[in-house]
Amino acid sequence: MKNIGFLSFGHWSDAPGSQARSASDVLHQSIDLAVAAEELGADGAYFRVHHFARQLGSPFPLLAAIGAKTSRIEVGTGVIDMRYENPLYMSEDAGAADLIADGRLQLGISRGSPEQVIDGYKYFGYAPADGETDADMARRHTDVFLKVLEGEGFAQPNPRPMFPNPPGLLRVEPHSAGLRERIWWGAGSRATAEWTARQGMNLMSSTLLTEDTGVPFHELQAEQIQRFRDEWTQQDFDWEPRVSVSRSIFPLLDDMDRAYFGGRGDDRDQVGNLEGGTARFGRSYAAEPDGLIEQLREDSAIAAADTLLLTIPNQLGVDYNAHVIEGILTHVAPALGWR
C-alpha cells in the first residue's frame, strides 16, 4: 500500500496548448485538481515553490484554500527553499494553513534548487553570515523553524500588553500540534538523507540526485532511502518517519496519451551537470498499462518508499491531469499492490 499524490510545478505560460496562461489560472486550477484528485481517491496534492519564476511562489494561501475545500487529501509542498524564509513568520503561516486543513499539511522544505536570479534570497532580505554558505543559511533557518514548531514559549512577554498574556514565555501563534512531525526535507544526496534523519524530518527524494556512482538512478535512490532509515534507528525519536519519491508516470490509455507521451525517448536515466557537479536524473515512465506495471516493478526506490508523488504536466489542464491520476489509480496501482 502506498500514499499516492500529485506534485505540480505550477507553470504558466502563453505557449500554444497551455491551459494555464496566468498565475490566476494556475492557482484556481491547482485547487480544482486537488478537489478532483481527492474525489478519485488520491492521497496528496503537493506543489513546487520557485521564486522569480512563472510558477507558484507563495504556497500558504494555496494550501489553505485547498485545505478549506477538501476533507481528506494531504496538502503539501515539494519543496520550499529555506534560504528565502523568515522561519517565525513561516511558522505562523504553516500553523494557520494546517489548522484550516485539520492537520493535513505535509511541508517539504530544503536548501532549494538552482535559482532564476543570482542570489535571489538577498532580495528577500537574507544573506549568509560570515563563513556561512547559502546552504548553511538554509539549514540555520530550518533549525529555527523546527524549534518554533515544537510550541515551546521563548519570547519575553510585555509587562503592559495590549491584551492579557498567559503565564510564562510566549510562543508563535497559531500553533498546530503535530505539524513538527509532518516536515520533510528534500534531500539530493545520501549524506543529506542521513542528516535529515538526525534532524527528525521525513525524507523527500526527487527525480534527481546530486551525485552519480554509476548505478541506475532507482538503485542509488534506494540506497539513499536505506541510509536514511538506518540513521533514523540510531536516533531517539518516538515516531516512524515517512519517505517519498517523485516520478513522471503516464499510462497510455488513449490516442491523446500516446500523442503527448508515447515515444518520447526519455525512458533512461540521464547524467548531467548541476551547479558545477555531476547529477543523475531519473527516467520517466510512459507505456500501455501492462508494460508500465512491469517497468515499475523494477523500480527499487518506489518499492522502498511509502509515498509516491506523480509529477504532472499542469499546463495540460485539470481534466487531463485528473485523467492521468485516475489511470494510475485504476489501471496500475492495484496490480502493484499500491491499492
TrEMBL record:
* Signal peptide positions (record): none
- Domain Luciferase-like, residue spans: 10-208
What are the UniProt keywords, alphabetically? Answer: Monooxygenase, Oxidoreductase
What SUPFAM superfamilies does the record point to? Bacterial luciferase-like
InterPro entries listed in its UniProt record? Bact_Lucif_Oxidored, Luciferase-like_dom, Luciferase-like_sf
Gene Ontology molecular function: any one: monooxygenase activity
Q: Which domain of life is it from?
A: Bacteria
List, alphabetically, the GO terms of the cellular component aspect.
cytosol
Among PANTHER family, the record links this protein to: BLL6902 PROTEIN, LUCIFERASE-LIKE MONOOXYGENASE
Record's protein name: Alkanesulfonate monooxygenase SsuD/methylene tetrahydromethanopterin reductase-like flavin-dependent oxidoreductase (Luciferase family)
